[in-house]
Fold this sequence. Notes:
Blueprint: E1 7-12, H1 19-24, E2 29-31, H2 38-46, E3 52-57, E4 64-77, E5 101-116, H3 117-122, H4 130-133, E6 139-141, H5 144-154
The chain binds a DNA duplex through residues 11, 13, 36-39, 58-59, 61, 63, 117, 134-136, 138.
Amino acid sequence: xxxxxxxxxMKSEPGVFSIDDxxxxxxxxxxxxxxxxxxxxxxxxxxxxxxxxxxxxxxVQPPAVVxxxxxxxxxxxxxxxxxxxxxxxxxxxxxxxxxWFQVDVRLLAKFxxxxxLEAIKSSPELRDMPLLRHSRLxxxxxxxxxxKRIEQMAGH
DNA sequence: GCCAACGTTGGC
DNA sequence: GCCAACGTTGGC
Length: 156
């Protein structure tokens, strides 16, 4: 039986963690920590090894999909929730009862031609992306059709 | 820096 | 359980 590969989009502010940071990491792999939204967390927990995701840069000009990553480790407790020095510290979380999770991702490709938010808005095939409707959802599903369209726009 | 959208908190 | 107040995200 062939496991279904799911497709996602994950947002990050490049000033905090950028696609180039991931490119420089050991094995081009890093933990996607700091997610503190329940709906986004539930999507993180639904991710399976081998799933792919777009890496989206938010809060920069221009906001854009800048590449693709692959899930290499499924959800496990995000250690920053226990770290009092972290901005993502959550006093309500405990080791016994973690509230927040992260996955590890490996960089697959950095787009030569990032796909800007403006271009996404102008493409009729992409009008239903949660990105355009729920701007605050930092981890969200992508349909195969949307995936193909964005890769096409990126020249990949 | 502003502010719309929307998620979270807490008083009742 | 409602909802006002508050906080955060993220485009502009």
